[in-house]
Specification:
7-stranded parallel sheet, globular, alpha/beta, Hypothetical Protein Yjia, Chain: A,domain 2, Rossmann fold, 2 domains, 33% helix
Length: 302
């Protein structure tokens, strides 16, 4: 049974990519497909944001590459018992190490990792390389397909510099540099790309000394917020998002209520968005990942 991993650092666009690919899958593949969502924080968000109608298994409050490795393997075992020929998509936490996610999957009986897709935010790549070093680069090193988000924000010279830097780290991965964020046909193209690419002969080196649990999880904090107040206007929420820059936040996302309607928000130091969501029955909640998170930040929501 095949497993495709859709990885990427915090806020790179993994869920957005899945929402492009899943609706474009053929009916026979959808019939056997299952999505595993992994959240670093205690609040599950992305499972409610995925379109396409796939069954979703959520694993949160940790990473499937380390603290939740056993739960991931048990979830795969359960899927194998439920489906005769399952096709599994996994969206790991943005702070998970791809090499360890791959290793955890390959320990599960009857499953084979097929695609190792990594979403790279083109606008933040060099800053995150410098700020997170090997922890960040692990995803790029072990990718078999790299899909760039926010690539349209770069000049041609900046793009070439980025591609050269990626190639210096991983010269075997396929690079997809089209502006898929704003393309209605991108899902069909990406789904077809996954079906046609041959990764068998890439021979990527998957040996890796794991330090995520020992070092990086101690550095990165997670703050989950429930019982969020209802906001009076979109401007009030935009003002809240602008205050995030006063904190050491690498990623924030959630569902909030504005005048009786549910909106979803996304935030990274480089990009933010706020848009109405089509399900007004969801419970408002948020998850924030960063450093030195405190009660002052929580109070912005309550």
């Amino acid at each position: 049974m095949n497993v495709d991993i859709i990885s990427g650092f915090l806020g790179a666009g993994k869920t957005t990519l899945l929402n492009k690919i899943i609706p474009a899958l053929s009916d026979d593949i959808k019939a056997k497909a299952v999505l595993i969502e992994n959240e670093f924080g205690e609040a599950g968000i992305d499972g409610d944001l995925i379109s396409g109608g796939l069954p979703v298994r959520e694993l949160y409050a940790g990473c499937v590459c380390c603290t939740l490795k056993a739960k991931l393997q048990q979830t795969l075992k359960n899927i194998a018992e439920e489906f005769n020929d399952a096709y599994v998509l996994i969206e790991p936490s943005g702070v998970g190490q791809l090499s360890d996610v791959i290793a955890a999957c390959e320990l599960a009986k009857n499953f084979k990792v097929r695609h190792r897709v990594v979403v790279v935010d083109a606008s933040s790549y060099f800053d995150y390389c410098e700020g997170f070093g090997d922890f960040y680069m692990d995803q790029v090193e072990h990718a078999s397909l790299i899909v760039f988000s926010h690539i349209k924000d770069l000049s041609e010279i900046q793009r070439e510099k980025l591609f050269d830097a990626i190639r210096a780290v991983n010269n075997k991965a396929y690079l997809y540099s089209k502006d898929w964020f704003n393309s209605e046909s991108a899902g069909l193209e990406l789904a077809a790309l996954l079906d046609s690419l041959d990764y068998e002969n890439l021979n990527l080196n998957l040996e890796h000394e794991h330090n995520h649990q020992d070092e990086d999880e101690q550095i990165l904090d997670s703050l989950s917020v429930f019982n969020i107040k209802e906001f009076a206007s979109v401007d009030e929420v935009k003002n809240l998002l602008s205050k995030f820059k006063d904190f050491k936040i690498f990623r924030a996302k959630g569902l909030i209520k504005i005048c009786g309607k549910i909106f979803k928000f996304d935030f990274t130091p480089y990009h933010s968005s706020l848009e109405e969501f089509n399900n007004s029955n969801l419970e408002p909640r948020a998850v924030i990942i960063g450093k030195d998170l405190n009660a002052e930040l929580r109070n912005l929501f309550i």
